[in-house]
Design goal:
8 helices; 6 strands; 9% strand; alpha/beta; four-stranded parallel β-sheet; two-stranded parallel sheet
Length: 211
Amino acid sequence: GATPVWEGDEAERIIPVIEGLRDEGVILSVDTRHASVMEKALTAGAHIINDVSAFTFDPVSLSIAARSSAPVILMHAQGAPQTMQDNPEYNNVLLDVYDYLVDRIEACVAGGVDRSRILVDPGIGFGKRVVRDNISLMNGLSLFLTLSCPLLLGASRKRFIGAVTGVDSAPDRIVGSVTAAVKAIEQGANIVRVHDVSETVEALSLTQAFR
């Protein structure tokens, strides 16, 4: 149900933040579907391009990525943000998402992005049936390791956690979010996007110690 944001407004919101953080010694990822915003963000100091449309929304975006040296995150999403949760359908969500990411990896490589710069994200919550599809993806994450690209997962505070646990308020889904992060790492995910950083770091430190 999200309303699209005009790229000019998007840039005005995020470029000052990137400029303010670029000297802090942290890696900055810009989340945008717009080529112009990607270009401005990279100039401002962003290191990673995260495109939830996997470079299908803006026809110029792939060329921007190819000309840069930035890593790119290709995420799967079914449908447009305004309607993607209305009636998502899959023959087999795990295989359908996998095949989509294979196609987008090949398209990016053909467009000039070296495979070593590509990360993949199955897109938890983006055009997925709330419990059925998201749980299937979480349980089958290890399949995506065969793409030979680093795997990123963003499950933190998502609606499927509330649907399973009964916790309606997103900020209160800390335990469920940490559990999902541990599940992702145990299945081979390389990066987890989280809201509750310290709690997740504590849990993952123990998870790694158990190994």
